[in-house]
Design goal:
Blueprint lengths: L1 H25 L13 H8 L3 H24 L2
Helix pairs in contact: 1-3
Length: 76
Amino acid sequence: MKKMILGVTLFVSGFFGALALIISTVLSPLNPWSYNGIEGWRGIVLGMQLEAPLIISMVVSIVGLAICIFELLQNK
């Protein structure tokens, strides 16, 4: 049960971290970015230097989900 709580906590924190970063890029048209000619969502992420934090928060979310699924299947 403790591992399930850990998995849920990791999933939720990673999900909300990624969500916050995505919302910051959605609000970016107020201050548009062009990173070496790359425009759009990828240009915004690169221009604001959010690529590493976005990847880390997505990985944390995936690891948390994997722990939850593993614990769920293990307890059956």
